[in-house]
Design a protein that fits this description.
This protein is α/β, with parallel strands linked by helices and 178 residues long. The protein has 3 domains: 9-65, 2,3-Dihydroxybiphenyl 1,2-Dioxygenase, domain 1, CATH 3.10.180; 68-134, Roll (2,3-Dihydroxybiphenyl 1,2-Dioxygenase, domain 1); 138-178. Helix content is 21%, strand content 27%. It contains 3 helices and 8 strands. The strands form 2 sheets. It has a 4-stranded mixed sheet, with helices on one face. Strands 5-8-7-6 form a 4-stranded mixed sheet, with helices on one face. It starts with 11 loop residues before the first strand and ends in an 8-residue tail after the last helix. It holds the Pfam family Glyoxalase.
Length: 178
């Protein structure tokens, strides 16, 4: 439990590319990322993109011909996952753009999650899902820990911490500095 490294959020992921230009086109026109300024001190070919609260740093491969190509789309392989508003709309757009994809469904206690998997130009796998349907349930024996969605989990955890502090204050275990 806790936050031993005092982390705040995921900042970016870096992807090695056979062609930075092709990857920029994909991440901008398929996934909606926006190119942003990159430090001029970086003396190698690359690009920085940003959207949805995350950065993607594209790095030009020093040997693009030796990069492995993933032809088979395997949902159990490494991937980046994005949540969407409408799986049906994403599927329609992927078909429109002639992007090959694999559909998958996850079911847990009557809750269904739809997933679409496809590759970027270099074979890095992308997942688009409605994963926020599944609540985040900590693997804790603490009965005070409640499940929450990915979006309201932090809010519920803060509310729980505040309630615990109020109880401690009322029981005289916590004093406030004034």
């Amino acid at each position: 439990m806790g936050n031993p490294l005092q982390l705040k959020s995921l900042n970016h992921i870096s992807l090695v590319c056979g062609s930075v230009e092709k990857s920029i086109d994909f991440y901008v026109n398929v996934l909606g990322f926006i190119p942003i300024k990159r430090p001029t001190s970086l003396d190698f070919n690359g690009a920085w993109l940003f959207n949805y609260g995350i950065g993607i740093h594209l790095l030009q491969s020093e040997d693009p011909k030796s990069m492995p190509k993933n032809v088979h789309i395997n949902p159990k392989d490494n991937h980046i996952s994005f949540q969407c508003e409408s799986i049906a709309e994403v599927e329609r757009r992927l078909k429109q753009m002639n992007i090959n994809y694999v559909k998958n469904k996850v079911e847990e206690n009557g809750i269904n999650v739809d997933q679409l998997f496809f590759h970027d130009p270099d074979g890095w796998m992308i997942e688009i899902c409605n994963c926020d349907n599944i609540p985040v349930v900590p693997l804790s024996e603490d009965n005070n820990v409640r499940s929450c969605s990915r979006f309201n989990c932090n809010i519920q955890n803060y509310q729980q911490q505040i309630q615990q502090m109020i109880s401690m204050y009322n029981e005289g275990q916590l004093k406030l500095n004034r």
